Amino acid sequence: MRYLYTLLMYLATPLIVLRLLTRGMRYGNYHQRWPERFGIFKAPDLRGSIWVHAVSVGEVNAAEPLIKALRQDYPNAPLVVTTVTPTGSARVQQLFGDSVFHVYLPYDLPFSVHRFLKQVRPRLALIVETEIWPNLYFGCYRRGIPLMIVNARLSGRSLRGYAPMRALLRSALRCVRQIAAQSRSDAARYRLLGADPAVVTVSGNLKFDMPVPDGARETGEAFRQQWGRLRPVWIAASTHEGEELAVLEAHLEVLKRLPDALLLIAPRHPERFRLVEHSVRSLGFSMAMRSADHLPGESHQVFLIDTMGELMSFFAAADVAFVGGSLVPIGGHNVLEPAALSRPVLVGPHTFNFEEITLALVRGGGAKRVLESEALGGEVLELLQDGARCKQMGKQARVVFDSERGAVRRVMHLIDHMLQE
Q1: Which pLDDT tens digit goes with each residue over 231-243?
Q2: How far is CA 291 from the centre of its chain?
Q3: Which terminus has fewer CB within 10 Å in the chain: N or C?
Q4: Is residue 59 annotated as part of the catalytic site, yes or no?
């Protein structure tokens, strides 16, 4: 199965190169770094490094407290952080600067994996959430590099999708020394996929240990002073195609009752900023943009957040948060960021990527599920008009957030034990 998989990967290489060229046109200097995807890069002496792989922005944010703990407990070990996406790379640079060595993860081709591991020379490999690459895993196993999946997450949908490759993935998972799952359900699914039950444990979700960035609350308060302290404000974060129109229609409903209300909208992917801008203007809203106007004024109805890495400050500046990827079958995004700032959370019906976290918030009274897009405006309006309920939901969200903390400590205990071995 692995030989067949590798052959298919080689056959797909021309398409991979074409995709790299296309991404290079979209993301500025990305084309200058495409050799990294084949294990070709210059690196300092990384002997004995600890390597953390986080595919994109969400995983980098989840790994932030763990990476900081590794820097504190193992100050002499070089830290290597890999990502797959340019936005993930930018987030690594924003959070850690030159204190870690960043490079793109190579494609799962044997020669690319060999070059990468020869350069990085890790003493420990940590894969965040759900990234199973058979040749990479076998490469670590052959070199005696202990491999651990941290914050391991596997939805029922992903498990079903892996069915045709289950034999291959089972053999890959047998190369893993430890799987620290987010929940009991995730742990059970990893065992069903073929992981050795003896290496699977439940450590909790690293995202609950996510620190609120320094100054986020103060920055949010300053934003509100700029656009009107008493204005009702809601945010639609990490939205996808098919959601922005529903969000804008919901805001039209809100404006009928609260004409001074402000919507902050933050699309998930930067390449969609222009499309969302066009949609906002075509519906006749008075709008401002983060890149062009810095902040909205009192007369603006919609503010497009077309920058990256500032979402926490805007969550702090809002009264209500809707988290996208949930009105369409994407699976939802991180509901913990607004919860950490004591903001009530609204989500759509599709939250399978964060199902247990979302359920915990809903059951704890800190979040509410909107079953259809047409109901979003009414739910937002109800919260914005009921300040006491809005604050109570926000407090409950923070209670749930605080009650689940401690995953970093548990994962670090596993890491310490593995490195001592």
Answers
A1: 999 999 999 999 9
A2: 22
A3: C
A4: yes
